Amino acid sequence: MTNYETVIGLEVHVELKTRSKIFCDSTTEFGGEPNTHVCPVCLGLPGVLPVVNKTVVEYAIRAALALNCQIAGFSKFDRKNYYYPDMPKNYQISQYDLPIAGHGYLDIDVNNEVRRIGITRLHMEEDTGKLVHQGTITTTPYSLVDYNRAGVPLVEIVSGPDLRSPEEARVYMEKLKTIIQYTGVSDCKMEEGSLRCDANISIRPVGNEQFGTKTEIKNLNSFKALYRALSYEVERQTGVLNKGGRIVQETRTWDEREGVTLPLRSKEYAHDYRYFPDPDLVPMIIDPEWVEDIRRSLPELPDARRERYMQEYGLPGYDAGILTSTKELADFFESCVSAYPNPKAVSNWMMGDLSRLLNAGGVELTACKIKPAQLASLLQLMDEGIISGRIAKTVFEEMFASGKDPGDIVKEKGLVQISDKSAIMAVVEDVLAKNPKSAADFRAGKERALGFLVGQVMKTTRGKANPELVDKLLKEKLLQEKL
Amino acid sequence: MVTREDVEHVALLGRLELTEEEKEIYTRQLNDILGHFQALQRLDTGNIQPTAHVLPLKNVYREDWVGQHMPREDALANCPDRDENYFKVPKIV
After folding, report:
1. Tens digit of pLDDT for each residue in A172-205?
2. Which stretches are transmembrane (chain B) (predicted)?
3. How large is the ipTM?
4. Most buried pick, A24, A314, A424, A427, via CB within 10 A?
5. Residue B33 forms part of a structural domain
6. Spatial distance between the Cα atoms of A345 and A341, rounded to a whole number of angstroms
7. Do the chains contact at B52 and A27, CB–CB below 8 Å?
8. Which strands make up the sheet holding A70-71, listed edge to edge?
9. B69 in a structural domain
10. What does the DSSP 8-state code read for residue B62?
């Protein structure tokens, strides 16, 4: 049996979060009553003139620079002609032979190996309207169209055929999402369709230079769908070739429910778009100074930030990777560390208790009630011995629920740690008197009995006793009486 | 050289239904037009940039502001068929 190598390239569409559409002043806001975010330009009425939104060009350059692309000095828009009611004009304004940027790359980590994935091109285009079917597109008696989304700005980012497995494709997509989010040009919400993906996939015998016949998979609307659809397609294509068959070059759609890819009838997707320069729009000569201004305004990007966390803060690669996986998380971390300069302690709380509470409550970090300065002061309260680590966890949960300052919670609930030796000693004596058996066990060499006794002291003091002091005083007392 | 198959293909892409006679006529006419343009092919354009636009304009931009939307009834006024607030179109595939 032949061993095959998988070859995947991704086309990712990212909606840019400008206020208005790419060629008119209608809003880009998601949702809204059907056909209310429209005007004569995005409805393609006769006699209108589209004009490029300058911020779209700026955002496209911003995203392209973050992906190490070269920016074109000369760029233009073209019409992509096709009959399909998702565009009212019967063409989509896109870029064909002179895209705004290309020749970039991004690095992905797969199995502790860095793989450089080429970005072939990045171009601007308008999004299409939304079609609503009853059931599926093939069974519906008619379709309904909402043009609110028509004309929302997109960049399409095309990778080279450099990905070698469904897993690499997923990691690439996640990395791309992280980088774009850092640049601030898109929310990248897959569930709202502001990040979408099509995949080209083929297989070839290992060692072959020449690519096999590819299929294009559409409708990959989550990281999971991307991974599953590509895994399915590898199996399917391998099966066809092993039986002596041939792969048909075609467009297929991912059926999430059945877990299979299915061919779309090729006639409607004929790749015969008859591109030509849009005579309504004039060419763009991109000023290199503008590009440099944009480059200077880019934030520190995930790879550089991760590296810095390892160098500057001495964090393990794992911590650094997670903390820099979103800009919000990294900003939170740094803000906290500037107030409480113990990076590892902050990292532990963020990756532990904070992410646990966020996940359990389904809360985004941006909506989290705990502010970085508050986490810092909680850690200070622990350092100063005002509260124990155990109490800190309780306080943290209260902070998460109410957004109150840790100091106020400690005062309100009377959670200040008892570090007064004589007060703890009184409780220790009381506990020993009530538990003579455990005391005897410990003296007989059963170390485990100590744990029980510590627990009793903590229970009596409602967790407020300084644990180290409890431990020390208990041992002292037990050993004293042994003599 | 434009063939009859080319005409049929282009007609399909443009969703035009042509009679046999029309296919005949358009094949001949399109070839006449292409023949006319062939005169231009004789010019040496080696040092000329491809034309992206016929007017000497560049960098025409608008600022990113939201303006007035069209009243929905106006937007839907000319559509052949509607369903509530949607445009209604025949089965696509």
Report:
1. 999 999 999 999 999 998 888 899 999 999 999 9
2. none
3. 0.90
4. A24
5. yes
6. 9
7. no
8. A70-71, A101-110, A113-126, A153-159, A4-15, A195-205, A215-220, A251-255, A260-263
9. no
10. E
Note whether B91 contacts A27, CB cutoff 8 Å.
Answer: no
User: Distance between CA A211 and CA A214 in Å, rounded?
Assistant: 8
Count of all residues that appear for chain B in the document: 93
- Euclidean distance between CA atoms A201 and A10, whole angstroms: 9
Nearest CA in chain A to B55: A282
Domain edges within chain A = 4-290, 300-412, 421-482
- pLDDT at position B15: 85
Is the CA virtual torsion A63, A69, A73, A79 positive or negative? negative
Question: What is the distance between the alpha carbons of residues A346 and A59, in angstroms, rounded to a whole number?
Answer: 33
Q: Residue B27 belongs to what domain range? A: 4-41
CA–CA dist A359, A174 (Å, integer): 19
What is the predicted pLDDT for the residue at A19?
97
Report the distance separating Cα A65 and Cα A290, nearest Å. Answer: 12
Residues near B2 by beta carbon (within 8 Å), at least 6 away in sequence: B27, B30, B31, B34
To which residue do tokens 């030509």 refer? A276
**Tally of domains in chain B:** 1
CATH number of the domain to which B17 belongs: 1.10.20
**Surface of B (51-90) touching A: CB under 8 A:** 51-55, 57-70, 72, 75-76, 83-90
* Closest alpha carbon to A94 in A158, A187, A166, A181: A158
pLDDT band at A390 (very low <50, low <70, confident <90, very high): confident
Asked if pLDDT for residue A60 goes beyond 80, the answer is yes
Q: Which class is A421-482 in CATH?
A: mainly alpha
